[in-house]
Amino acid sequence: MDSIFKIAGLAMTAQSQRLNAVASNLANAESTASSTGEPYRAKQVVFATVPLDSPAAQGVRVTAVVEDNSPLKQVFDPKHPAADAKGYVTLPNVNVVDEMVNMISASRSFQTSVELMNTAKQLALKTLSIGQ
Amino acid sequence: MTTAIDQLFGIHQSALSARAHRSQVLASNIANADTPGYQARDVDFKTTLRQAVGSALSEQPALMRTSERHMHAGGMASGTASAPLIYRTVSQASIDNNTVDVNVERAHFADNAMRYEASLTFINSKLKSLLAAIQA
């Protein structure tokens, strides 16, 4: 029963990392330059199964944070300070709608893990009070 | 020599460990609902329970007996159920090869938790009736 706490804890960590990536992407959806000088690229987390002590129990972990390699957005805006010689501004390849969907999915998965943990806790408490 | 108290809980002792085992598997499925390539698994409950009952009956804890007249410490369940896991059949295939349907898994988990509590209730009421018999 205690490995359920481990599984749900791992899932909550992984989902909050995903939520972090979403927040970072949404915050930088309009940044013309990141700390490296290059325009910001959307970041996505990669989930992988991680085996726990028993073969029945498998958690989840973020193994990598990858950058989206799709082409950056080019917007014609000659008045923009970051515009190039032809008047185009390079904007990040963040798809705001995708990120919102990602956010909702992550928060739903997080909620499910919390409920899982609560159920396991109730069962464990009831088991502890056998015969009382 | 197994006394009546060893068998007081009947199948519910084994059922509890089998249910706890299954809840682990279902929790793994729910945790991996967003992992690409993860295949949802479940246990064959009948086999798991049979193994749990079998291990409860056959496994003797290593208690040394220095005399033939010492009691046998038999009938203790070790609670390790390890029936082979089976994969769930896919109802709606997804593009990342993940076969977890969170709603199905949650329903199974809730059902499993309810049956776990049912076994707990049985154990509790057996204890109560034993206590009533002692105190009568």
What does this structure look like?
The complex is a heterodimer of chains A (132) and B (136). Chain A has 132 residues and is α+β, with helices and mostly antiparallel strands. Chain A has two helices and four strands. Chain A has helices at 2-27, 96-128; strands at residues 43-51, 58-67, 73-76, 88-91. In chain A, the strands form two sheets. A two-stranded antiparallel ribbon of chain A has the order 1-2. A two-stranded antiparallel sheet of chain A has the order 3-4. In chain A, a hairpin with a 6-residue loop joins strand 1 (43-51) and strand 2 (58-67). In chain A, helix 1 runs antiparallel to helix 2. The two termini of chain A are 21 Å apart. A two-stranded antiparallel sheet of chain B has the order 1-2. In chain B, helix 1 (12-31) packs across helix 2 (45-58) and helix 1 packs antiparallel against helix 3 (102-135). Helix content of chain B is 50%, strand content 4%. The longest helix of chain B is centred in the last third of the chain and has 34 residues, at 102-135. Chain B is mainly alpha-helical and 136 residues long. Chain B is elongated and about 65 Å long. Chain B has three helices and two strands; from the N terminus they run αβαβα. Classes of the chains: A alpha+beta (132), B mainly alpha (136). Chains A and B meet through helix 1, strand 1, strand 2 and helix 2 of A and helix 1 and helix 3 of B.
Helix and strand composition category of chain B: mainly alpha
Q: What percentage of the residues of chain A does DSSP assign to strands (E)?
A: 15-25%
Structural class of chain A: alpha+beta
Mean pLDDT across all residues of chain A, rounded? 91
The two chains with the largest interface, and their residue counts, are: A-B, 34 and 30 residues
How are the strands of the largest sheet of chain A arranged? 1-2
Q: What is the subunit arrangement here?
A: heterodimer
- Give the low-pLDDT segments of chain A: none
